[in-house]
């Protein structure tokens, strides 16, 4: 079954609604997620970043284990710190880091003001997306850091759409 395009490739200034972000999360689900899948997805993200000359770092974790990491030219150690902080949000909330931030903004507050979590440890900024397996749930995350947060989010979503052939 063909799914409609989840993330528009135009009008990057338009911020997606909470409903749109939740739809992405419902649709971007794996049947399984193996070590080989982590390598293939990570390699796809690196290939996309190289084509765009995007100065990003890419990370894939499953069940507390780092399965993939790459840092491209222009990325810095700060990107690794952002990856860790965004990944912790996915692990804690089971939702995309951008979606978690959007839910707080929709309530008229911010993650930093209202989550009661240390902002040095958690960042509800775009770029980390849960790896969800059918009939299992969230088992890990795929994270990109180096672009503005909405672009980081869209970059990961675009790669997941391609990988999952949606």
Automatic annotation (TrEMBL):
Q: Which family does it belong to?
A: Belongs to the UPF0303 family.
Name the residues that span the membrane: none
Q: Which organism is it from?
A: Streptomyces hyaluromycini
Entry's Pfam families?
HbpS-like
| Record lineage | Bacteria, Bacillati, Actinomycetota, Actinomycetes, Kitasatosporales
The UniProt entry, under Gene3D superfamilies, shows: Haem-degrading domain
Q: What is this protein called?
A: UPF0303 protein ABT404_36520
User: Which InterPro entries does this one have?
Assistant: PduO/GlcC-like, PduO/GlcC-like_sf, YBR137W-like
